[in-house]
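*Target chain*
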Amino acid sequence: MTKPNGVQHSDAMTTAWQFTEKVPHGRDLGMQVVSVDQGQVCMRLTPQSWMFAQEDRKEICTSVLYSLADSAGGLAVFAGALELMPIATLDMRMDYLRPASGHQALLAEATCRHLTDEVAFIHCDILNEGNRELLATANATFMRNTQGQQFNAGGRGKERA
């Protein structure tokens, strides 16, 4: 992930960049962390031509929006819990309101609405960056403290056999 100009760097932001670097899918799509603050996360994605569903229409595939919402939602879990722990997406429902034009960057604004010891409830809006037009909304639940590989912000985790 690249660090946008003018963004204040805090421990939460540093952790967010470390997390996003560990998720190759988000890194390969070019997702950027814009802000992390008290259960809220904003991520940015600049469209690339290979993301278009149809070359001639220049509309971004809905799967790219889903990936962006899932990544922002996962970071919102950490921002709401104020700690790192293994998480897993349990369920995500996306409502696509209009096509995402490939002419503008996208913003994902995710909010942790409620936390229990085991589940986090997230809402995410996907918008055009320029005119802030709402393109899609997502509601998701994430399992917290899942078993499996531990997330280590300082380096690569142990590989499992």
About this structure: Strands lie at 32-37, 40-45, 87-96, 106-115, 119-128, 134-144. Confidence is low (pLDDT under 50) at residues 1-9, 156-161. The chain is about 25% helix and 35% strand.
